[in-house]
Inverse folding.
DNA sequence: TAGATGACTCACA
DNA sequence: ATGTGAGCCATCT
């Protein structure tokens, strides 16, 4: 199972500044492969340390929150996001404001 | 090893 | 706006 990107994904999560969020596509784009968005979801699902990696800062391309969030549910995620001054409306986030782009 | 599943995204109707 | 189909990757069975 020599997976290289996995650790990198987690490392990227730590790079997300407080009050900002990223999309699966952004992370995948960071790896130069947009299609990897799916793998990102799988990887985050297998998040080894959810307490350390702010996986709740990762949302879909439309700013919608994950429906199968495993850390207390989607409502828990919304709480965490609001805790960082991120306005969550109808389980969605305004990427125009909170969308963060990784520097290559 | 191969087939199915999923925390995705995009394009089209 | 809502629904369907296709594509890619990591993990599971």
């Amino acid at each position: 199972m020599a997976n290289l990107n996995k650790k990198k994904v987690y490392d990227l999560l730590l790079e997300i500044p407080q009050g900002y969020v990223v999309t699966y596509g952004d992370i995948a784009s960071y790896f130069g492969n947009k299609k990897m968005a799916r793998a990102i979801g799988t990887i985050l699902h297998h998040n080894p340390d959810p307490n350390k990696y702010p996986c709740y800062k990762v949302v879909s391309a439309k700013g919608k929150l994950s429906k199968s969030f495993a850390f207390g549910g989607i409502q828990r995620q919304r709480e965490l996001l609001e805790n960082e001054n991120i306005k969550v409306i109808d389980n969605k986030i305004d990427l125009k404001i909170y969308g963060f782009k990784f520097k290559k």
In short: Chain A has five helices and four strands. The beta strands of chain A are 22-23, 58-59, 88-89, 92-93. Residues 23-25, 28, 34-45, 47, 55, 58-62, 65-70 of chain A lie near DNA strand B (CB under 10 Å from a C1'). The CA atoms of residues 6 and 42 of chain A lie 10 Å apart.
